[in-house]
Design a protein that fits this description.
Layout (H helix, E strand, L loop, with lengths): L7 H11 L13 H6 L5 H8 L11 H14 L1 H16 L2 H8 L6
Helix pairs in contact: 4-5
């Protein structure tokens, strides 16, 4: 069972707040959502956990999103840990994009 389609924009916004874009690519540019969608065995956890965020989470201000994520980390620490961990894994799974942004050149 996949993550419900109406929750994907919420997932995309949540990952973007966990690893925001600054002078380096963030979760949005590094396609963290697509990485997470590649693990259907976690869909039930994501469907239940993301449903605890406001329905308009993806349209909310960054401050409101941060507040909602903070509340989620208190209310459902196990889900929040999964979301945070897989977001970070997704970002680290795309080292070439980060390396390019930092000017690191791989020659081998």
């Amino acid at each position: 069972m996949p993550i419900d389609a109406h929750l994907v924009p919420i997932l995309r916004a949540a990952t973007a707040r966990i690893v925001p874009t600054d002078d380096l690519p963030g979760a949005a540019e590094l396609r963290a959502t697509e990485f997470i969608l590649g693990f259907p065995e976690y869909a039930d956890s994501y469907n239940a956990g993301l449903a605890k965020l406001p329905a308009d989470f993806d349209l909310s201000t960054p401050d409101a999103q941060d507040s909602a994520l903070s509340q989620l980390s208190s209310d459902d620490p196990h889900f929040f840990d999964l979301l945070r961990r897989q977001t970070i894994e997704a970002v680290l799974a795309q080292p070439s994009a980060l390396w390019d942004a930092m000017g690191f050149v791989v020659t081998a």
